[in-house]
């Protein structure tokens, strides 16, 4: 790639007088050696999988094998439809869709890891809800995924996208930043505004630990996807309104690296701390272990 930081990405897009999504498509094609239309078709296929996951999560039984989670997306969707939602239609829809995809993941369904399975609901939740609201076609959304990919590429190469390495700030935080920056571009923002959206989003998740109850990507992972979708919408709106990330986004990414590196191991996907080690969290883990022992004996 001809960029390694967000500032370089924005400058290159401005220099070529193109959007980040289109730039990333060119760069990906050049790096892979495959035609741009083939790369585009593959990414469009990924978006189709995301849409299918949203549909499944909003209409089918997503109860996880553990029995701990499932159907919350449909509960939120029904609440939104009641007209009583505090958030209102579009934001509530994004939240429901993000929960839906994350619940499909927890129930062993097919998802696209963006950038990880633990944060798989945020980009689909934001993208599909906005597509429905603004009437965008799938081609436009596919360019949006390339924009999100460019942002994720920079984050991954300068910090983390893995909860085991940098906590949930690396998974959910990165996904929020990717969604916020891409949405800013989809809404007509400049590359510079898209980059500011990333910084605004990431600052809001610095220090977020990874503390999966029972070691499963369910609690609190699923609800964090729902909250993350709403945060991405807020960051995009701030950037489009002219709010700037006073601390440059590339510096925010470096801080994420610093914070994640100093995070105790028990707060990095080990289930050794945080919510996983509350009295309720420990009881859930004991119950899961007991169920697994019984399954082994029966087999």
TrEMBL record:
Q: Which residues cross the membrane?
A: none
Family annotation (PANTHER family): L-SERINE DEHYDRATASE, L-SERINE DEHYDRATASE 1
Catalytic activity, EC? 4.3.1.17
Region (Disordered), start-end ranges: 264-299
Keyword vocabulary terms for this entry: 4Fe-4S, Gluconeogenesis, Iron, Iron-sulfur, Lyase, Metal-binding
What pathway, per the record? Answer: Carbohydrate biosynthesis; gluconeogenesis
Secretion signal span:
none
Compositional bias annotation for Basic and acidic residues: 283-299
- Write down the required cofactor(s): [4Fe-4S] cluster
| Name this polypeptide is given | L-serine dehydratase
The cross-references to InterPro entries, in alphabetical order and at most eight, read: Fe-S_L-Ser, Ser_deHydtase-like_asu, Ser_deHydtase_asu
A Pfam family in this protein? SDH_alpha
According to its UniProt entry, the protein's GO biological process terms are: gluconeogenesis
Q: Which family does it belong to?
A: Belongs to the iron-sulfur dependent L-serine dehydratase family.
- Domain Serine dehydratase-like alpha subunit intervals: 16-276
One Gene Ontology term of the molecular function aspect: 4 iron, 4 sulfur cluster binding
The reactions it catalyses are:
L-serine = pyruvate + NH4(+)
